[in-house]
Write a structure and sequence with these properties.
The protein is α/β, with parallel strands linked by helices. The protein has ten helices and seven strands. It has a seven-stranded parallel beta sheet with strand order 3-2-1-4-5-6-7, with helices on both faces. Helix 1 links the parallel strand 1 and strand 2. Helix 1 packs parallel to helix 2. The longest helix is centred in the middle third of the chain and has 21 residues.
């Protein structure tokens, strides 16, 4: 879809979500943005309105199924959604003494339930119109479980595989599905990392890569390619060969 006119972006108050909102903002475009920080979300909305877009915002926890369903129904009724970018997510790891059950469950709730809560309220209407596009934010971390971030890796692996399967399921109904798998991108999420991040990308550059991929309806938008090659190799090799190496890798706080 070259020029979607009604776009929903979750997790739009910072990072890639913010960059995508600003990139898509233009006259004639309706943006529905959600995030957890009202002040940052308001600032993003102001930038998008300055670019000519019509903007609606909502401070909602994507893990709240009822709230998300109600809000998305209102958004779609006002401007039938052409592109959903299920971007909201959170990250934490084992670098501060291990991963607690509470931390693991919260990451899974946001990163998995949040994606489902973003997609399914819009699917019936997209199917009825036989038109639409869904973009799911996964990660290169979803190709191999890393000891430094167990729940995060698991959540991104789930949404990656789910999106790949959903693409095939919806292909005959006029709905495109793309899975986005970034490496390290500058954001509040990566700012807390206390270790080197190879091939760290600027947020705006990542947003442009994603938009180009969505315009071509790519099944998988994975970048940068050197990181993609590295994680692909890690996933391909037997765990007995790689477990020792990964145990020595830096751990996310």
């Amino acid at each position: 879809m070259k020029q979607p006119r009604s776009i929903v972006i979750t997790g739009a108050s910072s990072g890639i979500g913010e960059a995508l909102a600003v990139l898509y903002a233009a006259p004639g475009t309706a943006l529905a943005l959600t995030g957890r920080d009202s002040a940052r979300l308001k600032a993003v909305a102001q930038r998008c309105r300055a670019a000519g877009a019509q903007v609606e915002t909502a401070v909602i926890d994507v893990a709240d199924r009822v709230a998300m369903a109600g809000w998305l129904a209102q958004v779609d009724a006002a401007a039938p959604v052409e592109l959903l970018i299920a971007n909201a997510g959170m990250s934490a790891g084992t670098g501060d003494g291990g991963e607690t059950e509470e931390q693991a469950r919260r990451i899974l709730a946001v990163n998995i339930d949040g994606v489902l809560n973003s997609i399914h309220p819009l699917l019936p209407a997209m199917r009825a119109r036989r038109r639409g596009q869904i973009a799911i934010m996964a990660s290169l971390a979803g190709f191999r479980g890393l000891p430094g971030a167990p729940a995060y890796c698991a959540s991104k692996a789930m949404v990656r595989v789910y999106g790949e399967a959903l693409r095939g399921d919806l292909a005959g109904e006029g709905i495109g599905v793309s899975v986005i798998c970034p490496g390290f991108v500058k954001s509040r999420m990566t700012a807390v990392n206390r270790f080197p991040m190879p091939f760290l990308m600027e947020t705006d550059a990542a947003a442009r890569v994603i938009r180009r991929g969505l315009e071509r309806n790519k099944a998988r938008i994975a970048f940068p390619w050197p990181m993609m090659a590295a994680v692909w190799l890690l996933a391909l090799l037997p765990p007995a060969w790689t477990d020792g190496l990964l145990r020595q890798a830096p751990r996310k706080p």
